[in-house]
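To assess whether the prediction recovers the assembly geometry, we first specified each molecular entity separately, as shown.
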Amino acid sequence: MNKYKCLILLSMFLIIFSISKSYAIINNYTLLGKTIYIDPGHGGIDSGTTYKKIYEKDINLLLSKKLEKELTALGAKVYLTRETDKDLALTTNGRKRSDLINRAYLINKTKPDMYISIHLNYLSDIRYKGLQIFYNNKNKENKQIAESLTEYMREKTSNVREPKYNNTYYMYRNITSPGVLIEVGFLSNPDDRYRLTHEDYQNKLISNLTYTIEKYFKEKR
Ligand SMILES: [Zn+2]
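The predicted structure of the complete assembly is given in tokenized form:
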């Protein structure tokens, strides 16, 4: 083989190698082109549900940031309604309503492919535990999202409750984009409370949730 042929072969090899390598990188970005809005519930003077010094608002934010990191790593464009310990109210009068109006406004303005609102549940009967997904009928995709995410979540996690229709939250009635509210566990239940306040479970929960969101978009195609 002469020098010239050898050079051609070598450059062909390099081209093929770099194409396959960049293809592999693109292929890992399974959520490329998807916009996801994460809404950590409550914030600021609104702690949400509490147990001693454990505040729902803090766990919601912590989990939301972990989820943001995971989804971003898969190529999704991710937004958060809040990134610090604050509410989104513009008025002190009717503060809660103003907070919820603003969250809905932000999400509607961005028109994401999906919104995920993160909350914790609480019941006086401490036996209730597990994750539960709530949806309304504002967007026709919501029911399917709730059912699919529940199904995929169950592949990896125990204690995933049946999805539930709920049209009572003001905010969610006003979000036109598809999405759901996830109560990731009960702060009132000792098992859930222990898990939700420990990093190994938080990480597992978020990695399972990322898997379910990824699978939802994959199956939807
Ligand atoms: Zn809440």
